[in-house]
Amino acid sequence: MTLAPLTCAEAFKRLDDYLDRELSPEETVRVAKHLEVCARCAGEIGIERQVLEDIRMKLGRIKAPRGLMARISAQLKGG
Amino acid sequence: MTATEFEAYLAGVLDGAYALALHLTRNRSDAEDLVQEAALLAFRGFWTFVRGTNFRAWFLRILSNAFFSSLRKRRPETGAVSLEEIPSAYMQRQAHQLAASGAAGGVAPGDLVLTVTGKLESDQITAAIDALPEEYRLVCTLYFLQDLPYRDIADVLEIPVGTVRSRLHRGRALLQKRLWQLAVDHGLVAAATGGAA
Predict the structure, then answer these.
(1) Domains (range + CATH), chain B
(2) In this predicted model, what pLDDT tens digit does every residue of B19-77 receive, in sequence order?
(3) Do residues B150 and B103 touch, judged by C-beta distance below 8 A?
(4) Which end of chain A has less Cβ packing within 10 Å, N or C?
């Protein structure tokens, strides 16, 4: 059975799950098909994806302090 | 199982574990202590870890549990939290509103949004996440810092996947609202006039 094409509002409701790849395969295809024919939604989802990547990139710079792994190793060996 | 094998697993997730600990404790020294405590607990329970499964999620769950139990801190409630409804893609909505009012200086809404996320500093974004209500902060931290799928976040926090989904969607929307406000406060964009906030 072929599911009905999504409207922009229906696609928007699925935006977060689509970006997170948490939709079912069928729902993913439905959103993807809508994006193929709707430049506006495709553009907006592209921007949202970039926003998430920007945030992730800026937060991903935290490094464990130098020496932490060595302290843990010593702790494990000490019991 | 040996300490060497355990350490090899741990080394691969140490930065992420420390980042989570820092967000939980909000203090570098406490974060280090928490990671060390979690490492000791994980090593003692390493025999329960199933090879081939996700060590990172397994270790972060131990770290999260250690945080909540050592501080005798109450876990965030799993029930719905009353908050104003903030739509997804909040910043794009605001940017479209600005463009429609002529206050965007001819900049396309999408470019305006990416200017905001591009110009905000890491510290500002970190502070905005840390300022989220705890139930959203934890989920967003695991999502953005660890890049975990919903199922693994649910596993780490021991809450249902549906709760992760709703908290993450609302937390992200709330974060976008705060980042946009930050951008307005710092003059990166003009304040929107009228419309939904």
Answers:
(1) 3-70 (1.10.1740.10), 90-185 (1.10.10.10)
(2) 999 888 888 999 999 999 999 999 999 999 988 888 999 999 999 999 988 665 555 55
(3) no
(4) N
